[in-house]
Amino acid sequence: MSRETRSTEEEGASDLMEKAAEAADDLYRIRDTYFPPDPNDKISKLQTQSQVALNLLDSIPPEQRRVPTQRATYEHLKGKILDVFPEYTKKAEDHLSKAVKLNPSLADAWLCLGNCIWKKGDLPATRNCFNLALSKGPNKRILSQLSMLERRMAQGVDNQEEIVAESIKHAKEAIALDVKDGNSWYNLGNACLTCFFVTGAWDHSKLQQALKAYQNAEKDESMKSNPDLYFNCATVNTYLENYERALSGFEAAGLKDPCLNAAEEVQKMVNLFNKLDSLLKGQIKAKRLASLASSLTEVRLNPSYKRASVNNLLDGLNKTIAIVGKVLFFVKHENITPLYYLVCDSNQISFVLTVYSISNDAIKEGDQITLLDPCFRNNDFSWNGKRYQFRSVRVDFVEQVHVNGKAVSPHHSVRSSIYAQHKP
Q1: How confident is the model at residue 29, as a pLDDT?
Q2: What is the DSSP letter of 294?
Q3: Which of the residue ranges 9-18, 102-111, 303-312, 336-345 would you say has the lowest mean pLDDT?
Q4: CATH number at residue 112
């Protein structure tokens, strides 16, 4: 074979390899951005497109696949195409393992291999794979996957806070490599939100950090097709009690992926707000209110606190202020946390009390409560043409509440077990 003929065949093989690489990338775009109402439609489309990509890859002449410069790429693409589905495939792992042995500098092959092993359920081996890849050089995508893996490994272990801290560290390292990469910011948002939950669901700074990270992620056009970004951002806004933004976020997530339970989250919130609205507008006899409120003026406070009515509170944290109230109703709703109560203060003004990180048997209907350093919000928003207006005070620590003149016992302190929704 002449040198000219060999050169022409090599160029043809390189062109086919490039087209196969493009087909593989298109396959993953379908996986990450196509969310039909019926999940089976997505699987069917992936099966069709993966076969097209495999046919294109296998159209490369066998002798060209064995060329050292092409062989690792061929193995990488074959494994990547086979691994696009949710289930573990040994063939995919075998091809990807060959690829990284032939060319240890193929970062995407390491990434695909780690994800493949993850599907097998071997999390320590997945971590070893990602760490080995990073020993070849820094890579934002592998750092993000390692961060996500660490959050998965933190579930159900004693040192979960330590592992989640590592997750945040690696997420920030990924951002440092490319501050405009939306996926890295999204991953940091998930890490901060997970940290909020595993540390007791009280540290608002973690929620604020998560929200800022999600907002930075939204600046990347490629992230606007990610329904989980909108869902998780809505979750943060729910816990920050930015209710209108939360409703809009869940609605946007549901429009992007009908298979998410976003519509159910919206309905749960609307059901709760309608119940609160009904209770607040309900007719509680003036004599009963006056009787309940009169006893509240006799409650003695720590001299370092100033007694106030809900009407006197400013938005946000009100340091050295105490509100004395009577629990009128415990408001049942469809989520585990927070707890909601309807309370009236000594001026007979009703407000909503939201309670985090405290068990539901600590405060009961009819209890007299003292709220220290109350965090206040004047809620006023509309949804689907209905306006909701209510004052609310949130409590995050047992130390902020006295019930019937006594401090709440530390054994009533609880941790949330809810994690940010994200896909491996």
Answers
A1: 95
A2: H
A3: 9-18
A4: 1.25.40.10
Tally of domains within the chain: 2
End-to-end Cα, the chain, rounded Å: 49
Contact at 8 Å (CB) between 374 and 404?
no
Question: CA neighbours within 13 Å on the CB side: how many for 329?
Answer: 15
DSSP 241-277: T-HHHHHHHHHHHHHH-TTSSHHHHHHHHHHHHHHHH
On whether the CB atoms of residues 150 and 164 are closer than 8 A, the answer is yes
Asked if the structure places residue 274 within a domain, the reply is no
Q: Are 350 and 342 in contact (CB under 8 A)?
A: yes
Residue 177 and residue 140 in contact, taking contact as beta carbons nearer than 8 Å: yes
Say how far apart CA 150 and CA 185 lie, in whole Å: 16
Residue 316: CB atoms within 10 A of its CB come to: 10
> 419: number of CA atoms within 13 Å, CB side?
14
pTM more than 0.70: yes
| CA–CA gap between residue 270 and residue 238 (Å, rounded) | 12
Please tell me whether residues 234 and 113 are part of one structural domain. Answer: yes
Q: Can you tell me the distance from the alpha carbon of 370 to that of 137, in angstroms, rounded to the nearest whole number? A: 56
206 and 260: one domain?
A: yes
CATH number at residue 371: 2.40.50.550
Per-residue pLDDT reduced to its tens digit, 97-129? 999 999 999 999 999 999 999 999 999 999 999
Q: Residue 374's domain spans which residues?
A: 284-412
Tell me the three state secondary structure of residue 408: coil
* Alpha-carbon span 387 to 380, nearest angstrom: 7
Are 246 and 183 part of one and the same domain? yes
Per residue in 305-326, pLDDT (tens digit) is 999 999 999 999 999 999 999 9
Q: What is the mean pLDDT of residues 152-161?
A: 93
Task: Outline where DSSP puts E strands in 359-411.
Answer: 368-372, 375-383, 386-395, 401-403, 406-407
Taking CA atoms, 100 is separated from 103, 130, 132, in Å, by: 5, 12, 11
Same structural domain for residues 314 and 380? yes
Q: Quick check: 45 and 34 in contact, CB under 8 A?
A: yes
Q: Domain for residue 275, yes or no?
A: no
